[in-house]
Design a protein that fits this description.
Layout: H1 14-28, H2 38-41, H3 58-73
């Protein structure tokens, strides 16, 4: 939180611990995919309370194309394959 810890001071103050526990509580109640609160997102009363928009991540799309190209050329599959994505310099 920006506090400079002095010699002899504890790393975590009571308020720091309270914020950390609050964050744990919020994260524990979140859907792992959409991050909406379980208590709201699973309530039947909210079945039609959400909207969704499809957005293409161009970095992920490039990654998927690279993996497909690799799989087409290498019949050994892609087990253990990791994709490093880097933004190319702008041509402007």
């Amino acid at each position: 939180m920006g506090r400079v810890v002095q010699d002899g001071e504890p790393l975590w103050l009571r308020e720091d611990r309270a914020w950390a526990f609050a964050l744990l509580h919020v994260e524990a109640d979140a859907c792992p995919e959409c991050r909406q609160p379980w208590s709201e997102a699973t309530d039947r009363a909210n079945e039609f309370s959400y909207s969704a928009e499809l957005i293409r991540c161009h970095a992920c799309a490039t990654s998927a194309r690279a993996v497909r190209a690799h799989q087409a050329k290498n019949k050994s599959g892609s087990d253990g394959l990791h994709v490093q994505i880097e933004r190319m310099p702008s041509t402007d």
